[in-house]
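Reviewer comment 2.1 asked that we show a complete input and output for one of the modelled complexes. We chose the zinc ion case, as it is the one discussed in the main text.
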Amino acid sequence: MLSRRKIWRNSSGVLHALRSLLELVFPPVCALCGDDVSGSQEGASGDFLWKGWAICGECLKEVNWLRPPFCPRCAMPMKSGVVSSHLCGDCLASPPPFSSARALLVYGDEVFPLLHKMKYGPEASLARFMGVLLARHFLWQIRDLGIERVVPIPLHKKRLVERGFNQAALMARPIARALEIPLELRCLVKVRPTSPQVGLKRSERVANLKGAFAVTEKARISGKRLLLVDDVYTTGTTLSEASRCLLKAGAKEVHVITFARVS
Ligand SMILES: [Zn+2]
Ligand SMILES: [Zn+2]
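Response of the prediction step:
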């Protein structure tokens, strides 16, 4: 009979061979700097490796991870020394409709090429990679929230045809799969196209999004705790408006997760 150690050694050898084979089929490229990381020890961290995409060792050191302290409600990074349970000034003045927000990274120059390539490449597999990273890093936190449905921020039909995919939906799929809960792709819809939010004042952003979302199948989310997924949390206007719409339709709670958070 094989000892447990021997079985482990054998299976890790098989895993290594499988990974080498996978790297041969999909040579991993760093999603941030574009470097080929196949075979490099630095880029070989399994946590940041998935089907041809990786984050290399150098970039792992460079990126600004969203670490405490941050506002537990909107994930706004806070000055060190602040207790993590404290809400930020914005949330104290006017709390958002969602119960909590989390993000993997603080938005910065090093993240911009990745998001740009994903959206305007357009590179659908990169959006899936981002979703895999979120699922790997937040699985237990999301489980603890008792999430029952995953809902991506929808694109308007026109934009969907232009890009060919909804990045938030692709990011949401690996999360729903890891949680083994339903992914709601047709429940929240964008019923009206909106102009880009960039450069608009707060009141203009709110007006721009007013009535932009609708819930088509209320029964699917009624009384449920939802996880709302998007690529970037910028001002929170889109996520707030979508949350409001879901809560109005009967959702019990809405929690937000994004890949990056603008500070
Ligand atoms: Zn890199
Ligand atoms: Zn806040």
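The pocket of zinc ion (ligand 2) is lined by residues 71, 73-74, 76, 87-88, 90-91 (CB under 6 Å). We note this here for comparison with the apo prediction described in Section 3.2.
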